[in-house]
Design a protein that fits this description.
The protein is mainly β. The chain is built from two helices and twelve strands; from the N terminus they run βββββββαββββαβ. It has a seven-stranded antiparallel β-sheet with strand order 1-2-3-4-5-6-7, with no helix packed on it. A five-stranded antiparallel β-sheet has the order 11-10-9-8-12, covered by helices on one side. The longest helix is centred in the C-terminal third of the chain and has 10 residues. The mean pLDDT is about 85.
């Protein structure tokens, strides 16, 4: 079953997604879980191209309760979030594995940091090409187009290939 660039594998009822299934969006984000009457309904997981995931209980296409886990394993907490706040700016990998030896700076959450393609920026979830305004994953898959606000932030803030 295909819908405007999306794909669905799973059970159907009356021509609609129903029961267990796998729905893949055009961006390669994938939902795996329960469906009802053409909508996410029950337990299911959204897997994002960058490796992060959102596990939730869904009702009629709306997530009612869930948890988000970043690609590096850090689980988001909506209460008492103490990661990357004004008092502690360490990367998650520094908190988990400890600091690198003196003289070996850690510029990103991944060490050593990925090599940035010529003319591009490292925007934390992939590389940004300001000429095309496209952000791709570190493995080269399309993630998104940057709007004006994100473009300005990346150009002002992120690591450049020429630094």
């Amino acid at each position: 079953m295909e819908f405007i660039g999306s794909r669905y594998k799973g059970s159907t009822k009356n021509g609609r997604m129903d029961g267990e299934g796998e729905y893949t969006f055009p961006t390669d984000t994938k939902y795996v879980g329960e469906m009802k009457d053409g909508m996410f309904h029950g337990k299911g997981v959204l897997f994002f191209p960058n490796g992060s995931k959102y596990e939730a209980t869904w009702e009629n296409g709306i997530a009612k309760q869930g948890s988000f886990t970043f690609a590096d394993g850090l689980q988001y907490q909506d209460q008492n979030w103490d990661y990357c706040n004004a008092y502690d700016r360490r990367f998650y990998s520094e908190r988990y594995y400890g600091f690198r030896p003196q003289g070996e700076p850690q510029l990103t959450n991944v060490h050593p940091p990925p090599s940035i393609p010529e003319g591009c920026y490292d925007c934390a979830d992939g590389f940004y090409d300001p000429n095309t305004r496209v952000i791709t994953s570190y493995t080269g898959r399309f993630l998104r187009n940057a709007d004006d606000s994100e473009h300005e932030w990346i150009v002002r803030t992120c690591r450049k290939a020429w630094d």
